[in-house]
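Data availability (excerpt). The following record was deposited with the supplementary files.
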Amino acid sequence: MPCRGGVSPLTEAQAVDWLAQTPDWVLVEEGHRIERKFGFKDFKQAYEFVAGVSHLADAEGHHPDICFGWGWATVSWRTKKIKGLHENDFIMAAKTNGLAGP
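Predicted structure:
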């Protein structure tokens, strides 16, 4: 369930605990967001991944920052309403991992 605000963001220690469940993601901005760079064989594959993340984000009502180019995409999750991380960011990171394939 998306965070609607009114709660405190996760502490950095709490975020580290959640990070164990999201392989290849890293904490950035002193634990205020998580990020992962994905690699692909070409631009089309990267674009299709970004489109999949976009559809997922719209369905879940929670939207990441995404940057991509030929053969790569970087996805960054944080909950803007609380200016930090929420459990949902890690759930979305795990779902994003699933879109990337093996």
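Summary of structural features: The two ends are 26 Å apart (CA to CA).
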